[in-house]
Amino acid sequence: MDTVKLNNGVEMPQMGYGVYQVSPAECERCVSDALKVGYRMIDTAQAYHNEEGVGNAVGKSGIDRKEIFLVSKVWISNYGYEKAKASIDESLRKLQTDYIDLMLLHQPFCDRYGAYRALEEAYKDGKLRAIGVSNFYPDHFIDLASNVEIVPAVNQVETHVFDQQTEPQKIMEEFGTRIMSWGPFAEGRNGFFTNPLLAGIGGKYGKSVAQVALRWLIQRGVIIIPKSTHIERMRQNIDIFDFSLADEDMAAIATLDTGRSLFFDHHDAETTRMFMGWK
């Protein structure tokens, strides 16, 4: 498995398994399957309500904890210094671990500065090996990264062939921050799995549309966390390190960029109201 080095020197797998929308009831089974087929990074969040399932699977796997990279995220209802500090300890308890490898702020709303101070403190105390943010657009990201003691190691944002985040990635790199993709399959939107360009490129390499799209992200230096609840697809998704896309294929895929989200715009008033309703 390829790794990337974060801005504090921590090595992180470039590919992991995401558990967004994996129900608490089946999360333990899915994470156990993912670990069996070779994933060593698991991405969860307080808002997913399945940290316990991740912790159970890791604990029962028999794999040395040091070989597994755990990612979680503080939800906006836990923002502010004191609440975020308490929520980090709660995540540690649910994940059944003494430390979390990477902890992110999940959204750029509410008291993100107070919450980030709690991340910095937990990092200094050894509870977190690295810290960062999620869904921070360039304006939110530059503002926070320029005004904190510990620059985010990672910014996890919607990134896929239809919303490629090329310019935001350059801005993150100015700060030494790694881009991490959520929704690398765009959740199947915009005809993702039947896209003729991706299918044609896949035919050249004997790979699926999904594998081509994931490989394209890997070659851009993007950290990825594809999700499937089926072990065979987990195996297919991880089987992308035995080929490389040619420069012309990388350039062709770049033409698919729409430059906009397929889900929601964090600058939109109605999106902000939606998140305020989830506090």
From TrEMBL:
Q: Which CDD domains match?
A: AKR_AKR5F1
Kindly give the Pfam families that the UniProt entry links to this protein: Aldo_ket_red
Keywords assigned: NADP, Oxidoreductase
Report if keyword NADP is assigned: yes
Q: Which residues form the NADP-dependent oxidoreductase domain?
A: 20-256
Recorded hits in InterPro entries, A to Z, give: AKR, Aldo/ket_reductase_CS, NAD(P)_OxRdtase_dom_sf, NADP_OxRdtase_dom
What domain of life does the native source organism fall in?
A: Bacteria
For this chain, the family text in UniProt reads: Belongs to the aldo/keto reductase family.
Q: What is this protein called?
A: Aldo/keto reductase
Q: Which organism is it from?
A: Alistipes hominis
